Amino acid sequence: MKKELLQKFEEVFGSEGEYQVYFAPGRVNLIGEHTDYNGGHVFPCALTIGTYAVARKRNDDKLRFYSLNFKGLGVIESTIVNPEYKKEDDWTNYPKGVIWAMQKKGYPVNAGMDVLYFGNIPNASGLSSSASLEVLTGFILRNLFSLKVTNTELALIGQYSENNFNGVNCGIMDQFAVAMGKKNNAIFLDTADLSYEYAPLDLGDAKIVIMNTNKKRGLGDSKYNERRSECESALRDLQKVLPVTALGELTEEQFEEYQSAIIDPIQRKRAKHAVYENQRTIKAVEALKKNDLTLFGKLMIASHVSLQYDYEVTGIELDTIVEAALRQEGVIGARMTGAGFGGCAVSIVKEAAVDNFIKNVSKEYSDKIGYLAAFYVVEVGDGPVIL
Question: Whole-prediction pTM value?
Answer without folding.
Answer: 0.90
